[in-house]
Design the sequence.
């Protein structure tokens, strides 16, 4: 008995020890459990929610871009897409083969689809084909039983009803790149586009709208279990432009095949009614991605379809610059309007002889005739008296060679030279440079939009800034009122002298552009021609008498310019027309300006709130 | 002599045996299986299919098996000890030769449609073999180191075979289980210390020879955050599930981690996490309390037994059960490296259920036959 006690006594002791150990270990686990579940519980609860809740954004519809009458010039259209959900297809290649029999898929497309299927989870749809026609969509739906896994879905795509007519103003949208996505996570949504040029770019944030969001409960592999919460987004705002789309169409029509640009502006408030550049491109091509061949064609075209000539084309203003020189002279009191300067057909300065465009000369020329006849010698002399710095200062006040407050990305500034500018290049200003500047040649470079602004300021006497945005989300924007713009600090008396000169250019038979007279005798247009050389005319060519710019190769011919405003007695519309290598302002640009102005006056967009009747867009030649 | 006659003459028939079964203990096991049913019902997303119903069926089968074994005379079971041991070793060898490879280790063997893990059966056989070895040992013989060599070998052979599968976790549990029986049998303290000293060195040596997946498991345990989507994923997601359950839990069938499949193997190894997520610390501690009561209940059966064989067997089965519980719960909390150890009677899985219930049957047989005359060493006479 003693031995048994000894044996079981040891066992009992050790078993109790083990039991104590077991309880202690389980107690340790309980303590650890308390730490995980209670002490650190809040942190883990957050992690659990992060695990299961996936916030996704809903793309808001992009705002439209409208013309001044509310005609859509950029909108969204329904885009039928065929998607493939891999896990619902029994055999993916055979589904795609069947699909190819309805809508042929190229080898390249098949490779892309295979790649995306392999990369994504099997329940995430892969785009097979977008921009399906209604017929294709219907045939896919009818054949749905043969197409397991194929799903037809509706998305949106950007459309531009006016295509190339407004391409440079509206711009275009394209898929965002990674840097864009870092700025706004909304852009990561499939199918979302970002404005890349024009108004689409300038007003991108307003057009984009605010993303809605949906909180989804997802499982470990990302499959959506249910929707927890949904916040609808805010649709992008509509942007109303100052453009009259019908007028824009008529202007483009009138420019025809020329490599040219024309800007029509409300001269009292700077609203751009039409801004045409020719040739152009179809912005919707950027939506799906531009082909290499198309891109090469555009970039190799010497008529530069991708460049907005109105804001980015730089030209010597030629004789259209003379008004600026004249006002500078009047303001500096170095000339008086009635003073006559003799034009023998040339102007000698030291050893250099500067020619007037008219070989025999104009004889005695006063200010009015100087403008009317576009006498070069008159302006050589005025320029010499005023000096380049005062010419430059006046030109800038009038909107030439400065950056305009234009709401369109990509404008160029051009150049009005000064002594300081020349010095900054390490060269000395030459008096000869001043002389050629007097007729808008030499270093001077301006854009057609600057010329139109310049004309609008001359005509209205206000420092208007050209702009394209009239309404944002329906609200009229500041700037549509003439009183929004400060007066030009030039005495009205001087401006009237200039305006009268411009009137005579068109309305007197001896003017340089009598052919620009409007068909309606009750309304008068004032204007000024310009022909700017792109190449120096050599003395030999001039003296041999064989100089005929018509016979030059296209790219060496002078540019043809015309600036105008109308009606003369109550200026409302200002315009510039620049025809690249059009040879003669009077011969090429003036008739175009006349025809456009006739339409403008008929349509009268500045005084009209509803779109004018369709026949007012007809071009009468 | 009086006592012996008393037992022989008493009406120790079938009815008496059935009445002497520890029904309270059986009730505890049923409660635990009920916890398993509840958790598995939730793991299936609120459905008895595919886990909970089969779990209940298996438990019923296991319960019948347990009660059947409970009625078998413990002395008869003792006679089969070494046979069971031999069969266990044979199965371990068989699994090495033709077992299924799962997760980089050969662990499972197919016996006529029933997939079993021989290492689990081996643990029970080892308990029986060691108990019968020490049952006849006198105090003096236990003190003799030579006497300890055969049982040490009896531990090392299956441990080595299980290591070769390779299944580090079960091998360690088996070795600890053997150690516990040695300890309870009265082997001197200093001998354990002697064995324990070289273990760190052996561990270092072993680490160098571990399989990549085993090493990954240990590395993951030490630094789970280094690989949140890879090997550390299970532990991190399990801790998130437990932690987000908080004090009171998210409510039955409301666990997001489990129901949205963030929690891996929620119906097997991580079933405790599921309970902790849905019933909170309170529910988890309640289940741990039940497990603790079952372990201590088994130990009490050992203490009340009047023969050494029964004492050692009951202690071995209880310790084995405890080790399952401890390793599983510590594992889901990230306190020890993950190893495929289920929570007994709660986790889904047929093999584990059957082996656990076999062990419980033997434990119950010890209880029923705690007072039988069972000649052991002279010390017990």
Sequence:
């Amino acid at each position: 008995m003693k031995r048994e006690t000894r044996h079981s006594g040891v066992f009992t002791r050790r078993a109790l020890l083990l039991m104590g150990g077991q309880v202690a270990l389980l107690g340790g686990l309980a303590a650890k459990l308390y730490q995980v579940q209670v002490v650190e519980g809040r942190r883990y609860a957050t992690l659990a929610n992060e695990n299961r809740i996936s916030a996704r954004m809903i793309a808001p519809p992009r705002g439209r871009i409208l013309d001044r009458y509310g005609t859509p010039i950029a909108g969204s259209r329904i885009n039928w897409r065929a998607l493939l959900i891999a896990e619902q297809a029994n055999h993916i290649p055979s589904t795609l083969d069947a699909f190819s029999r309805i809508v042929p898929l190229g080898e390249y497309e098949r490779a892309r689809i295979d790649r995306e299927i392999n990369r994504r989870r099997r329940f995430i749809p892969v785009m097979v084909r977008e921009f399906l026609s209604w017929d294709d969509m219907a045939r896919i739906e009818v054949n749905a039983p043969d197409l397991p896994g194929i799903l037809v879905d509706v998305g949106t795509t950007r459309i531009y009803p006016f295509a190339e007519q407004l391409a440079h103003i509206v711009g275009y949208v394209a898929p965002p790149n990674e840097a864009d996505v870092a700025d706004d996570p909304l852009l990561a949504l499939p199918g979302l586009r970002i404005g890349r040029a024009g108004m689409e770019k300038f007003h991108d944030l307003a057009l984009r709208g605010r993303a809605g969001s949906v909180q989804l409960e997802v499982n470990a592999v990302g499959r959506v279990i249910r929707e927890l919460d949904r916040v609808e987004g805010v649709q992008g705002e509509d942007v109303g432009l100052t453009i009259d789309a019908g007028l824009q169409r008529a202007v483009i029509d009138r420019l025809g095949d020329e490599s040219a640009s024309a800007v029509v502006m409300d001269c009292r408030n700077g609203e751009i009614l039409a801004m045409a550049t020719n040739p152009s491109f179809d912005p919707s091509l950027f939506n799906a991605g531009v082909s290499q061949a198309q891109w090469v064609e555009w970039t190799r075209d010497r008529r530069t379809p991708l460049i907005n000539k109105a804001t980015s084309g730089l030209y010597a203003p030629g004789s259209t610059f003379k008004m600026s020189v004249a006002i500078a002279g009047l303001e500096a009191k170095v000339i008086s309007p009635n003073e006559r300067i003799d034009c023998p057909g040339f102007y000698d300065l030291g050893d250099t002889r500067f020619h007037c465009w008219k070989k025999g000369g104009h004889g005695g020329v006063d200010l009015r005739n100087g403008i009317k006849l576009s006498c070069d010698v008159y302006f050589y002399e005025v320029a010499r008296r005023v000096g380049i710095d005062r010419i430059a200062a006046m030109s800038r006040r009038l909107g030439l060679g400065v950056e305009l407050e234009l709401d369109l990305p990509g404008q160029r500034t051009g150049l009005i030279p000064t002594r300081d500018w020349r010095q900054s290049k390490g060269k000395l200003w030459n008096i000869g440079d001043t002389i050629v500047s007097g007729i808008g040649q030499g270093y001077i470079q301006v854009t057609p939009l600057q010329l139109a602004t310049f004309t609008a300021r001359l005509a209205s006497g206000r420092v208007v800034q050209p702009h394209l945005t009239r309404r944002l989300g329906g609200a009229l924007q500041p700037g549509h009122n003439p009183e929004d713009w400060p007066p030009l600090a030039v005495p009205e008396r001087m401006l009237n002298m200039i305006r009268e000169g411009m009137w005579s250019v068109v309305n007197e038979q001896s003017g340089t552009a009598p052919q620009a007279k409007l068909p309606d005798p009750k309304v008068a247009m004032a204007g000024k021609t310009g022909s700017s050389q792109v190449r120096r005319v050599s003395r030999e060519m001039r003296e041999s008498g064989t100089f005929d710019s018509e016979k030059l190769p296209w790219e060496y011919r002078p540019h043809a310019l015309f600036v105008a405003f109308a009606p003369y007695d109550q200026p409302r519309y200002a315009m510039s027309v620049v025809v690249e290598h059009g040879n003669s302002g009077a011969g090429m640009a003036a008739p175009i300006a006349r025809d456009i102005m006739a339409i403008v006056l008929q349509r009268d967009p500045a005084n009209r709130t509803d779109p004018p009747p369709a026949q007012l867009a007809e071009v009468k030649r | 002599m009086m006592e012996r006659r008393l037992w022989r003459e008493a009406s120790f028939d079938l009815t008496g045996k059935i009445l002497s079964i520890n029904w309270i203990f059986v009730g505890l096991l049923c409660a635990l299986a009920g916890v398993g049913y509840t958790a598995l019902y939730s793991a299936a997303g609120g459905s008895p299919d595919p886990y909970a119903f089969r779990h209940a069926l298996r438990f019923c089968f296991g319960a019948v098996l347990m009660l059947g074994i409970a009625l078998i005379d413990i002395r008869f079971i003792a006679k089969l000890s070494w046979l069971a041991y031999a069969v266990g070793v044979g199965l371990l060898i068989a699994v090495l030769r033709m077992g299924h490879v799962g997760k980089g280790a050969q662990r499972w063997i197919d016996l006529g449609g029933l997939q079993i893990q021989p290492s689990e059966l081996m643990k029970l056989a080892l308990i029986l073999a060691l108990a019968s070895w020490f049952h006849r040992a006198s105090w003096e013989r236990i003190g003799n180191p030579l006497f300890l060599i055969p049982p040490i070998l009896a531990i090392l052979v299956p441990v080595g075979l299980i290591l070769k599968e390779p299944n580090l976790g079960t091998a360690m549990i088996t070795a600890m289980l053997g150690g516990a029986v040695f300890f309870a049998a009265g082997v001197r303290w200093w001998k354990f210390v002697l064995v324990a000293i070289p273990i760190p060195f052996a561990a270092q040596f072993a680490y160098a020879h571990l399989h990549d997946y085993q090493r990954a498991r240990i590395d993951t345990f030490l630094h789970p955050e280094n690989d949140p989507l890879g090997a550390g994923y299970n532990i991190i997601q399990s801790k998130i599930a437990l932690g987000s359950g908080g004090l009171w839990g998210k409510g039955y069938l409301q666990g997001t981690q489990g129901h949205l499949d963030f929690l891996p193997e929620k119906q097997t190894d991580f079933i405790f996490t599921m309970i902790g997520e849905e019933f909170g610390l309170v529910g988890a501690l309640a289940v741990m309390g039940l497990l603790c009561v079952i372990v201590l209940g088994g130990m009490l059966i050992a203490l009340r037994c009047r023969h050494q064989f029964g004492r050692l067997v009951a202690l071995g089965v209880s310790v084995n059960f405890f080790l399952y519980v401890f390793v599983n719960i510590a594992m889901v909390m990230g306190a020890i490296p993950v190893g495929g150890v289920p929570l007994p009677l709660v986790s889904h899985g047929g093999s584990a259920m059957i082996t656990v219930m076999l062990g419980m049957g033997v434990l119950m047989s010890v209880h029923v036959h705690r007072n039988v005359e069972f000649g052991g060493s002279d010390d017990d006479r």
Summary: Chain B has 18 helices and three strands. Confidence is low (pLDDT under 50) at residues 1-6 of chain B. Chain B touches chain A through 52 residues (CB under 8 Å).
